[in-house]
Amino acid sequence: MNNGILKHLIGIEQPKVLVVGMTGKQGQGRSKMMMKMGTRVLAGCTPGKGGQEVLEKPIFNNAKEAVAANPELNCAVMYVPAAAIKAAAMDAMDAGLKFSVLTADGVATHDEAVLKEYAQAKGCTYLGPNTVGMLDTSGYLFGLIGGSATWAKKNYLPGCVGVISRSGGLSQLLGAFHCRPNLPGPREDGSFGPLWGDKYPGVSAVLCTGGDPMPGVTMLDAGLAFQQDERTKVIVAYGETGTTQENDLAAAVKSGQITKPIIVFLGGMYTKAGVAQSHAGAMIRNEEETYAYKRKAMEEVGITVVERPDAVFAQTAKVLGM
Question: Of 105, 134, 175, 273, which has the fewest Cβ atoms less than 10 A away?
């Protein structure tokens, strides 16, 4: 398997996964999908259920036991309720797992703050919470993205577009539509029709940073990883009001840390201060988190900002000369 985006995000070249909550219905179903996509799931863990087997993988009571039996483990994907995320993530970090995906929605902001500090102290990284996860076309998938392995294999195809999104739905749209031959869409001249021919751009990886106010992996973290990824020629992102993630991305372009072209569909044009657009992290708390401020910051450094999601694809075609 070729090295994927995790090499640049956290230094992991070949992810080997522990599934936390693998004995549950969602854990079993998603583990099966992950394995069909090529993800190397080695074990699962659920407190009190050690000694069982799920999908022919051993189940342990906690991450420490799992790592003791499988020292090559380096990642965890968690299908546990929001109230259990903090303890489960800290357990994985204590066991030495450097990367985790936290799929749960509704995690308390206080728990997210504690996890952020804990991860920094441990030298660990996590994606989420409130994320559909990530997919790398070199051969692995973590989380909920894709729906089914059959659909994901058909709709996420290797190519040169790196996708970052604060939305689960937009993660999948921006990823899959870049893999469709003869994709129709609005062109810059106002006409509507195929934006490219049989040769589609494809994707290198799709990262959903999640919709919460204090994500583990931020848009900046993902952008810096795609900057280093030799497969990625253009970065496409879904941003929105709330937090300063888009501002940080713009600052990295201004400083020269990111030089690859970036196209952003920015949501929340009509979002008012104190009201969340949809995600908890979209709430505006100060001027820097407004739509107008973010758009200006990005456009001033050369990031292309579009007002509707289907306008992204014509810009991708333009950047790639298709």
Answer: 273
End-to-end CA distance of the chain: 29
Is residue 119 a contact partner of residue 131, using CB atoms and an 8 Å limit?
Answer: no
On whether residue 138 sits in a domain, the answer given is no
- The answer to whether residue 73 is domain-embedded is yes
The sign of the dihedral angle between the CA atoms of 147, 153, 155, 159 is positive
φ/ψ of residue 85, rounded to 5: -65, -45
What's the distance, CA 159 to chain centroid? 17
Spatial contact of 168 and 144, defined as CB atoms under 8 Å apart: yes
Q: DSSP string covering 67-116, please?
A: HHH-TT--EEEE---HHHHHHHHHHHHHTT--EEEE--S---HHHHHHHH
CB distance 269 to 292 below 8 Å? no
Tokens 């996890």 correspond to 115
- Residue 260 has a CB neighbour count (10 Å cut-off) of 16
Q: What is the pTM of this model?
A: 0.95
Examine the domain organization and report whether 104 and 165 are in the same domain. Answer: no
Q: Helices 291-300 and 245-255 meet at what angle, rounded to 10?
A: 10
- Per the domain annotation, does 161 fall within a domain? yes
Range of the domain at 282: 156-322
Q: Please give the Cα distance from 76 to 57 (Å, whole number).
A: 14
The answer to whether the CB of 221 falls within 8 A of the CB of 257 is no
User: Mind listing the pLDDT tens digit for each residue in 83-140?
Assistant: 999 999 999 999 999 999 999 999 999 999 999 999 999 999 999 999 999 999 999 9
Q: For residue 141, what are the β-bridge partners?
A: 135
Is there a single domain that holds both residue 194 and residue 316?
yes
In-domain check, residue 151: no
Asked whether the bond before 129 is cis by omega within 30 degrees of 0, the reply is: yes
Those residues with Cβ within 8 angstroms of residue 234's Cβ, 6 or more apart along the chain or in another chain: 160, 161, 162, 201, 260, 261, 262, 263, 316, 319, 320
**Residue 186: CATH number of its domain:** 3.40.50.261
